[in-house]
């Protein structure tokens, strides 16, 4: 798959919408059958809508969750950003490399159509611990999660990893490559976060649409593997 795009739409006037305009009976000009093929019920049916899949984008404060959702969403993402004030000094630390001036206080929301059969609905969680009470509601009905990590601030990532392990929700750990590099290699990150080999661990760029797409496809594969396992057990 080279790109993420919306499915092809039928052209206006196509018989996929039903009987062509100007000939509602499906017969010839004199009303005799045979001049024009009679449409069957199947001809008038539209293609089934894509299956909705809910994915959580989680992680610590300032790791790039809002950027991740915004980079790939095919709609203008819904955000609940509020200006950071002096009251957050010493409480909310976005990291020394961040120019962050706002913070998510409820959630981020976006969506992207993978193909004709599948559409992802992305819910980004707030990163601060004081908004943790919202995670249960946001995660309800989700099939998987993308845990975004800043490798220079691994301590901020433990709560998200612990949450999805306790919830038994399939998740993928994605290290955001700030400025094109990461502070530690992936095996060091895996050891520091104490995640098993069965949990996919990758690097990505939260600003790049195709990089985000590839990370989300890994989440889908992980969710599918879990569904197959649960069905067989």
From TrEMBL:
Residues 1-11 have a biased composition (Basic and acidic residues). Transmembrane segments: none annotated. InterPro entries: Gliding_Motility_GTPase, Gpn, P-loop_NTPase. Keywords: ATP-binding, GTP-binding, Hydrolase, Nucleotide-binding. Residues 1-47 are annotated as: Disordered. One of its GO terms (molecular function) is hydrolase activity. Pfam families: ATP_bind_1. The keyword Repeat does not apply. CDD domains: Ras_like_GTPase. Belongs to the GPN-loop GTPase family. This is ATP-binding protein. It comes from Polymorphospora rubra.
């Amino acid at each position: 798959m080279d790109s993420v795009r919306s499915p092809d739409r039928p052209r206006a006037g196509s018989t996929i919408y039903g009987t062509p305009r100007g000939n509602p009976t499906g017969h010839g000009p004199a009303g005799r059958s045979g001049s024009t093929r009679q449409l069957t019920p199947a001809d008038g049916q539209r293609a089934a809508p894509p299956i909705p899949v809910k994915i959580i984008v989680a992680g610590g404060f300032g790791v790039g969750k809002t950027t991740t959702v915004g980079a790939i969403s095919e709609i203008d993402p819904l955000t609940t950003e509020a200006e950071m004030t002096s009251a957050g000094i010493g409480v909310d630390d976005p990291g020394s490399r961040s120019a962050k001036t706002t913070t998510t206080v409820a959630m981020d929301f976006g969506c992207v159509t993978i193909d004709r059969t599948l559409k992802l609905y992305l819910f980004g969680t707030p990163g601060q611990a004081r908004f943790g009470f919202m995670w249960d509601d946001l995660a309800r009905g989700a099939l998987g999660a993308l845990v975004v990590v800043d490798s220079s601030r691994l301590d901020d990532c433990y709560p998200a990893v612990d949450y999805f392990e306790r919830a038994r929700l399939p998740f993928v750990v994605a290290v955001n490559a700030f400025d094109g590099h990461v502070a530690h290699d992936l095996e060091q990150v895996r050891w520091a976060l104490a995640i098993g080999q069965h949990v996919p661990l990758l690097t990505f760029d939260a600003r790049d649409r195709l990089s985000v797409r590839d990370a989300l496809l890994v989440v889908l594969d992980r969710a599918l593997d879990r569904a197959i396992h649960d069905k067989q057990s």
